[in-house]
Amino acid sequence: MHALLDILTSGALYAAGIRLAVPVFLAALGELVAERGGLVNVGLEGMMLAGAFGGVLGSYLFDDPWLGVITGVVLAVVVAAIQAGVAVSLAGDQIVTGIALNIAVLGATSFMARTVWTDGNVPQVEGFDPWAVPGLSSLPGIGDVVFGQGALVYLAAALGAVLWWVLTRTDWGLRLRACGEDPRAADSLGIRVIAMRWQATLICGALAGLGGVFISLGDIFTFSDGMSGGRGFIALAIVIIARWSPSHLVPAALLFGVCEALALRAQVTSADLPYELLLALPYVLTLAVYAGLVGRTLPPAALGRPYVRR
Amino acid sequence: MSAGRLAGFVRSGAAASVAVRTAAALAAAVAVGGLALMIAGLDPVDAYRAVLDEAVGSSFGIRSSLLQALPITITALGVALAFRAGLFNLGGEGQIYAGALAAVLVALQARGLPFPVLVPLMLVFGAVAGGLWGGIAGVLRARLGLSEIITTILLNFVAFWMVSYLVRGPIQDPGGAGYPYTEKVVDGARLPVIGDTVPAGVLVLAAVAIGAWALLERSVVGVRLKDVGEGPSAAAFAGWRIDRQVILALVIAGALGGLAGAVELSGNQHRVSDFFTPGWGFDALAVALIGRGTIAGSVAAGVFFGGLRSGIDGAQTSVAVPESVGQIVQGTAVLFLIVANADVAVRWARRIRQPGHGRHHARTA
Amino acid sequence: MPVLARMSGIVKRFDDVVANDGVTVEFSAGEIHVLLGENGAGKTTLMNVLYGLSRPDEGNIELGGRPAEIHGPLHAMRLGVGMVHQHPLLVGRLTVAENLRLGGVGDGTADGLRAAVAEVTRVIPLDIDPARRVEDLPLSQRQRLELVRCLARGVRLLILDEPTAVLTPAEVERLFTELRSLTTQGRGVVLITHKLSEVAEVAQRVTVLRGGRSLGTTLAGERSLAELSDLMVGRQVPAVSHRGAGAVGTAPRLRLRGARVGDENGRCELDDVTLEVHPGEIVCVVGVEGNGQRALADVCFGRRPVAAGSVELDGAILPPVGEWRRRGVRLGRVPEDRRHEGLVLDAPLWRNLLLGPMAPPSRFLLHRRRALRRARRLLTEYEVRPADPHALAAALSGGNQQKVVLARELSGEPGAVVAVNPTRGLDVGAQHDVHLRLARLRDDGVALLVISTDLDETLALADRIAVLYRGRLAGPYPADEAGRDLLGRLMAGLGPGESEPPGAGVSAVAA
To answer: Using one digit for the tens of pLDDT, what is the confidence trace for C421-472?
Structure first.
């Protein structure tokens, strides 16, 4: 118990918590955009995985983590394009499409890792080290925790703010919401529903890919099979927990991040805690919060329904 | 996320056209797999021939294929039943773990019991454990409206870490040199192989398939499950208890996942580790989708992908076909199947087939 | 007056159905042009083509004398064509202001919006708070919002699809007056309807559509209503009244006593409703859509409990529908949404005939052969086409789908039947069949409650008529004593003696 208390009171826990929250936050942000447009993107997990793989691949090939970011985002957007092609343009079942993509991407990334690197021995690559914001990082208490992070953390925060503004304050956001609520009405107003949903899906893919890059390049600088570890599904849950509001995503994602950080630190610092059970905690907690908060608001009315023009 | 969304995907069509589309989608997916093999520097024809040879070329190969197919197919039948009720069971992995864990605990506790008592007991406990695990998602869905797509996946991780904890601690094999697995179960707890080729688990699979078919096609409960899946509003209007059907469907799905875990434990691995399932839960998902939620289709697809997995496994030494090719084929097969069945795609295809469509149509005023 | 739009040789197909088969018609400025036809005649499809919502498979469109290809609704509006749909195409969860903005009204600021709306509303008043969510507005106001949105975009040709279905008679009067004043400004109006009375009242020109084809355009005065009716239907349909001899038994079979239903927001949907339906009579509850019909149907269907009061069948409290089979409740139910609530569209007919508490009981085993035999018998008896128990419900026409629902609900020897808009969306022939079935049932001593938004249907069927307005019930009155005038006033929420001030309908509902 004492060991646990030590962990809970250390600033390092919360710094790690923020870092671990970022991939889920980014993916959830992307999912939120897609769902506001009416597309439930179960392929999120696959897009994150594609991003994680692409990040390592790009950083390995070009020896520059920023080119890794670009590679990861591009790969994830390619997966998103397949999702959009099948589930938006062809009006295929959104969920089945997402499931299929998850399976295919899991296979494809594992396959490519074995093709690029012999026997799948993925090397350590250039990643993102923490970068202290001058001045702010020396603030007492929270300085280190909040302002001593990798560059992608600040990028994630900025993207969150931008998308909040886009969704709630711009005509594009209004049109997207119309597509998610009532695509037929939106169509009758001349909004190109299919195009809007494509855009939303691609944005979702890019954000999920960025989240995936962060898993590989923000932390352990390498790739392993299925390393997204269900975070895509946690992001799906977090969107519901946050009630489709971008600002509510932050606390929801942080809760998950801190919980996971707790398990990881317990594994490192004290051998006598059953760390396997602590590693189950983020999933249990996500389930518990989901169960406790669900049903208070309504999802976009046309969520999950393909739109076909007659 | 409402029930009934799978209806469009499994909508019954003419049997022949369904079979043709499925075969075409599978062929296209196998071609994509071949492309991957080429990228990996292999000759796809040779590689596939090696896989085929390993899968069905010998009685050992057939046995291995069937052993791989068993957990996939039994789980897939559960996934298929849930589909018919409009539910997505992504929790096969966790349910397999739950079933295997229960079965191994029974075998370790009651190792003195004779075979005809012990093995059925293990299977029953495996099914019950899986059913309870699946039932959690069912209750959360029925009572609180939580999406089973999310909850079943999260429960997979919970089950995995629980097993991981147990096989490293309380039930670790004391003579296992610290490896994360349990002791092997005694001989009296093992499903035998009939002749030299057919694992006895095939009989369990046959019984499950017949039972699942009877449930869907010849029972009142099955009709109501399908009503809930195909027309949730109409089922509610008719007075069917949707919550009960949802819980029942996910309990059955979980029970079959658990049974699959028990069969695998008893018939093949004989011990539980935290690498017990190589992803059969997701294989089962793809298999049930490719089988379009039907019993026969799921069994056929399950045997196909079990054979593929086993063949790739066997070919490792000769041709080194990456294991992940199987997943690529599965995922793309489902995608192609969606495309082949999408109404929009069908309409496009019809338009392409009829150039100058309707030009000759009489104009009347 | 100049021709605003000319459509020639328009063909539109949906899969294998030809919805428009070479239609040629033109619309001029300064007049109200009625597009007359039955349900399914292709009126809405034709106008959706003109509004850019669907592409014609063949044919040409000219706007203002020049050939035009209309790429979409926004394009159509830019070219001066606007459309108000039967179920207004507004986004319910968004506010009035957001919906106007989506339609391209204003520049995104509150002031710009106000200016743009003020310009239009001198002719067509819009007394709605722009911050309100559209789904909270009554249907009549939503329609008005869509109308204003069109006009604010400056359309020259305004299409209205069955606009009167959600309006009280007085609101209809007011709308027609406004439409006339729009034509005097030089705009053209196209009114889609299947009601002959509206031709008489408002049309300057009439085009009759039947089976996807145009039967020609005439000036309103050139043909009598009887001729138009024959053209529209294509055969002689006798004007029938299905009234019976009146209530037979003394004890009511179905009875609501002080029934009250509220929604989650505490609004009262059904307020102290008391109604008795006796064996051998048809009681119709009529009213403008959105006045509590859904709640009334739900409590009779055993789907929703009452908050106060009771619903009784044969003197016993009606349990939730899940318990009907066990308790032996025999009440036939014809839901409004037959496609989703009445039927499992993706299931074969024999399974659809097993839905609900009155289907033959069977606990565990499915007696497939018996179910198929029963299905064959019922499908033949109710003249369903095709009478194939294996056909999917989705493959049937609307009329045949309704016959399947009726076969299931009426064949179980129900003591009472509750039906909601049983003929909506059906063609005249199918309507006639449904009415005949219901009347025959009444003659057999069944108690029938028909909840309808169609005054004509009500007058044709009912022995007694009650009016539902904002959750409260007026009546029932014997059918002989309840004329159109009385019912119209009651549907607008006025007492039997009051007359309706102009515009009262809208402002009253807005309050």
So the answer is: 888 877 777 888 888 889 888 888 889 999 988 877 888 888 899 998 888 8
Report yes or no: B217 at the C interface, CB cutoff 8 Å: yes
- pLDDT value at C144 more than 90: no
Q: What are phi and psi of B279, to 5 degrees?
A: 105, 25
Is residue C150 domain-shared with residue C297, that is, in the same domain?
Answer: no
- Same structural domain for residues C157 and C229? yes
Nearest to B158 among A99, A284, A295 (CB): A284
Same domain, C181 and C269: no
Q: State the residue range of the domain holding C107.
A: 3-233
Number of domains in chain A: 1
Residue pair A82/A72 in contact (Cβ under 8 Å)? The answer is no
How far CA C347 is from CA of B11, B211, C340, in Å, comes to 9, 22, 12
Neighbours of C89 (CB within 10 A): 22
Q: For chain C, say whether B358 makes contact (Cβ under 8 Å).
A: yes
* pLDDT over 70, % of chain B: 89
Q: What is chain B's alpha carbon radius of gyration, rounded to the nearest angstrom?
A: 22
The first and second tokens of residue C186, run together, are 């030089």
Length of chain C: 511
- What span, in angstroms and rounded, lies between the C-alpha atoms of A19 and A13? 10
Using CA atoms, how far apart are residues B85 and B78, in angstroms rounded to an integer?
11
Are C186 and C62 part of one and the same domain? yes
Closest residue in chain C to residue B9, using alpha carbons only = C346
CB of A230 within 8 Å of any CB in chain B? Answer: yes
- Pick A96's closest partner by Cβ from B9, B327, B344: B9
Chain C residues touching residue A190 (CB < 8 angstroms)? 52, 72-75, 77, 104
Chains interfacing with C (3 or more CB pairs < 8 Å) = A, B
Please, which pLDDT band fits residue C506 given cuts at 50, 70 and 90?
A: very low
Q: In what order do the strands lie in the sheet with C447-452?
A: C331-334, C416-420, C447-452, C282-286, C464-469, C472-478
Domain carrying residue A208: 2-122+149-293
Residues C369 and C292 in one domain: yes
Strands of C388-471 (E only): list them: 416-420, 447-452, 464-469
B122, pLDDT greater than 60: yes
ipTM: 0.87
Q: Are residues C228 and C278 in the same domain?
A: no
Q: For chain C, what is the domain count? A: 2
Rounded-to-integer distance, Cα C132 and Cα C113, Å? 15
Which is it for the CA torsion A274, A277, A279, A281, positive or negative?
negative
Domain ranges for chain B, please list them: 70-298
Q: Which of A138, A34, A37 is nearest to A80 (CA)?
A: A34
User: What are residue C448's DSSP bridge partners?
Assistant: C282, C417
For A149-168, the pLDDT digits (tens) are 667 788 888 999 999 999 88
Cβ contacts (< 8 Å) between A89 and chain B: which residues?
A: 344
C17 at interface of A, judged by CB pairs closer than 8 A = no
Q: Check pLDDT > 50 for residue A56.
A: yes
Q: What DSSP string describes C259-297?
A: EEEE-TTS-EEEEEEEEEE-TT-EEEEE--TTSSHHHHH
Q: Is B300 on the interface with C (CB under 8 A)?
A: no
Instruction: Report pTM.
Output: 0.87
Q: Is A35 on the interface with C (CB under 8 A)?
A: no
C443 and C371 co-located in one domain: yes
Say whether residue A97 is in contact with chain B using an 8 A CB cutoff: yes
Chain B residues with beta carbon closer than 8 angstroms to that of C342: 234, 237
Question: Average of pLDDT values for B45-65?
Answer: 91
User: Does C247 map to a domain?
Assistant: no
Find which of B10, B139, B149, B162 to mutate to test the A interface (most A CBs within 10 Å of its CB).
B149
CATH number at residue A289: 1.10.3470.10
The CATH number of the domain where C404 resides is what? 3.40.50.300
